[in-house]
Model the fold of this input.
Amino acid sequence: MPSEKRGEMVELAGKDSLKSIPHKILEEAYKAGAASDEERAGTFFHIDTSTVYSRVNELFKGKVELMDIKVALQKYQWLSDYMWSAVPREGDAFTRRVAEDFSGGYFLRILPDAEVTFPLQSCMVITQENLEQRLHNIIIAEENSKAHLITSCLQHSTVTSATHIGVTEIYVKRGAYLNSTMVHQWREESMVRPRSAAIINENGTFVSNYICLRPVRDVQMYPVAYCMGEGSKAIFNSILYGHRNTFMDIGSKAILEGRESRAEMISRAVTREGSKIIVRGSIEGNGQDCKGHLECKGLILDDESFLQSIPELTARSKSIEITHEAAVGRISEKEIVYLMTRKLSREQAVSLIIRGFMDAGIMGLPETLSDEINRIIDIAAKV
Amino acid sequence: MYLLEVADLKVKVENRIILDGVSFGLKSGEIHILFGPNGSGKTTLIGTIIGLPTYEVVSGRILFMGEDITGKSVDERAKFGIGVGFQNPPEIAGVKLGDLLKFCLGKSLEDEFSEEEMRLIEAFRLKDFLKRETHVGFSGGERKRSEILQLLFLKPKVLLLDEPDSGVDVESLKIIAGEIQRYIESSGASALIITHKGDILEYVNAKYGCVLLNGKIHCFTDPKHVYEDIKREGYEGCIKCQVKSEEKW
Done:
């Protein structure tokens, strides 16, 4: 990244309000889960190839560090040990592209024992046509810390085609809890390749929520959680709404190494208007007394669409207990008719069921954040 | 005039005749009890009146306040004022019970419940369930209380109740039946109640009882009397007892 851009970032970061971000972009970010920085413990904004805003709320100074990754790498020598330790640099063509060159990304560190009661937020925005945005983010949840992060990735409404490649490496230390919610709002001609992995230590919990509701040409991702520590836990939830020829191939993998480590995966997918959704889930039980459960439910609304659920359960010890339930198909006629006996028309009943099917309630979020996500779903489900 | 009249109704389910000429009428303020062995078609009768697509009307008519509703859709019938309380209502994942109750009341989601509505919610011991997904993880009794409360909130002119007394503890049954009775007295609505065990007879003031057997309705007289006969003679006794079934209900 050119140095003058970093200088600009530092200057903007010194301002204490999101007003420095163009109004139109902010408006769209708010629709994708972002909020004013008073409502957040920390805010990070990366637009196109520059980090333009990075600030920790006064109330949480000393509990959280949040800055551009390139700034952080200069500040902390030790941080380079965390680069490419969870996600392999040579993983695929996309990780290699980020390894070659990237414009920035966030470094988020929740300090030991800190309980961050407001959500943290990061916002990745594309405003340039045909841009390939490459980011590298690192999150460290130090021992016994607790935090929620909401990441909004979006594309300005004037941009039709772009590519986003984001590497995110997450380290959840002993006893820490990190809940990370990612909202994607791309456009119909975009290609998106997130590459994420989490390493979870003893009694740590990592929750990953993924929400993709707007049409997008092609998203493919398969984040991995390595539950290394005893009693560590990984939870993946996703709500996917495929319409207008969207293609999504969304997976999640949990590798249970630590004794009594756990994994849970819940996904809800709705596909219509010629969209294709593939939902993958893999839970691999290697350690003693590990448990996992995978649940995938999908609704398909027309004959032009496609929905596929691919679960994989692996056991390498007799003490393993991993279960799975999946259902794909039409909306239950029994439920539709039931709601019609409550004076709802067939159309109202169908949209209420779809809306309910995609409810953020599955994500275990605090009430305010859950309400915010539900508002985003309300808007998307009105199509 | 009848609020609800069923005239010579024949109904098929998967090519089998289940109801073979059923006729009856419900007048304002009346509660009728429908007995009958398992599989005799009691649930089919209620499902056909509300218009569930599983049930195919071969012949006969269903009239609501004199208007033929045999060809109407489920939601149209509900809007006319036919309310149904199912025996096994489905789970509606992601839809909060509180929201569904507001739909039943015709409120928008931003509206609050009135004091009287809150009183009923509390009487049905469902206050803690308002934010929960409808019927998801509910016990049998909780489901039943939710079902009857929704029905009362719909303010129907005719209540069709499929075994409101099964799987419910005595205390809940008292509440449910008491509120049904109260609603009927105050609104002039009428009800058709299916029961197996007759428990509900203790708490509602039912005028007639009848038995559905072999696709036809037999017998109609004081429901307690019918119930005593069934207990004594079994449903076999109802078949022999043809005399009363010649009367017009």
Summary: The CA atoms of residues 2 and 27 of chain B lie 5 Å apart.
